[in-house]
What does this fold into?
Amino acid sequence: MAKIGNRTSYCTDLTEKDIGKEVIVKGWTAKRRDLGGVIFVDLRDRTGILQVVFEAAEVANFPLAEKIRSEYVLAVRGKLRARDEDMINPKIKTGAIEVLAYELEILSDADTPPFAIEDAESVNEMTRLKYRYLDLRTDRMTEIMRLRSEMLYVTRDYLHKNGFWEIETPYLGKSTPEGARDYLVPSRVHNGSFYALPQSPQLYKQLLMVGGADKYYQVARCFRDEDLRANRQPEFTQIDLEMSFVTQKQVMDLSYGLVREIFKKCAGVKLPKKIREMPYDEAMSRFGSDKPDTRFGLELIDVSDIAAHCGFQVFERAVATKGGSVRMINAKGFVIENNLILSRRDIDALGEFVKTYKAKGLAWIQVRHGMELNSSITKFMSKETVDALLKRANAEPGDLLLFVADKDEVVFKTLGALRLHLAEIAGLIDKSKFDVLWVVDFPMFEWSEEEKRHVAVHHPFTMPHEKDLDILESDPGAVRAAAYDLVINGEESGGGSLRIHDRALQKRIFNILGFTDEQIEERFGFFVNAFKYGAPPHGGLAFGFDRLVMMLAHTENIKDVIAFPKIQNASDVMTQAPTPVDKKQTEELGLKVVEKI
It folds into this structure.
């Protein structure tokens, strides 16, 4: 028998307008029902399901149809017809039509799969990842892969229309350790030397500006050898862009324009034309985070001035410590008579929760009916001090005041996490909304206790605020960076900065970071040398593309939006990578595998 020809349609591209046409459809067997002389098959391709009917009187090779089993791959030629009225299925797009088959070809048989495709969501994640090629057949994963592809198309189209060139940069580059650990690739030709996979194309894209590209972008694969969590992977995708002769506002406006275009065209979500800019200091003081979720309240309140002489030693010591403070959250309405949102046991659990963020403990005051107080700390304080705390918190009956006292770094991190935790408990977050803002004026440097030196908050090539250049050496901790992060629903979706294009200023930054001339030459010599030949003012931004897909796919797990992801220990359960390699391969590379110390 001649092979069935080329596919004429995807399953759900067919509509009632096509009734009467001869069609050829191809796909997998999602379901099979044998009624004796009539076999119904739900045929699945990436667009969805189409019912195919095999009747013994109509199809020439009916015995072949009787052999069909779950996940067999079929090619079917037949006529599209309307379903009987009592057989219409309103739950699927093609529920009113079906194909009456008269020719069948089994392109591939299949063993019984380890789980039914339609039941995949009830299967544990490790099993789905082990058989990821089956998981990818599910409606949910198919839709996410379609969405991801559409978002990439819209991205490329938008940037092309705005004058950008797509330029690829190398995967095999030089290791410049300043941040996360590199993935290293040993060189066979240059024995004992290594390439590094790019953590980002940062240096290359700046060199493209030196080279006159003017507007560059890339769908960039990036690699970081760091501990994983729900929204991290060792390899991930950035939408990376850089522009010459631009202001910070121009970069921010164009970048946000791209996000608006993606949300509108790929999800039908209309983001506002203009969004807030929030200075870093305000974000930290109000929300305890440089990526604040402002869809709900529970803002931080500084009570350090009241706590400084309050009689409670824990508070007083924190305020007396350099860089320390006492701050609180008023969880309004969390204490309701006979209907506590948080019981005493729950509050004790919060005390354990904050310890995971290095806080020593959590102090609290319950404000009950008639402003009656129940607290772990008020017995140490005067009435005037307690009244001052209540007034600062704008406390009312039903409120729960939660305090953390420590160094600012710990206080912000702890209360920032606590407010998110409380919002989830009380259902305060409207997850149907997209809350978008820019966080600007980041610190240029932070002090590393481990290395006993200043390190760059973003990277060493970020331009400092022009107004802060005079204090660059005298007070580096106070210097602000011309850096900006786009925050959506409490997640950093993209970040960038204006870059240093003056070699003298770049050297000052390197010196503040503690690099010797030899270290600068060894790590960044090729980069610094390029700036001797005329570097334009430039700036850019990189979006975490996987995170954008997560938002529009309504998932909090980055593994859901990557076709073949890694698990928590950076391994691939499907291929079993990483694995030992043949001794001959390591010998060619001049490597000897030793037991890890």
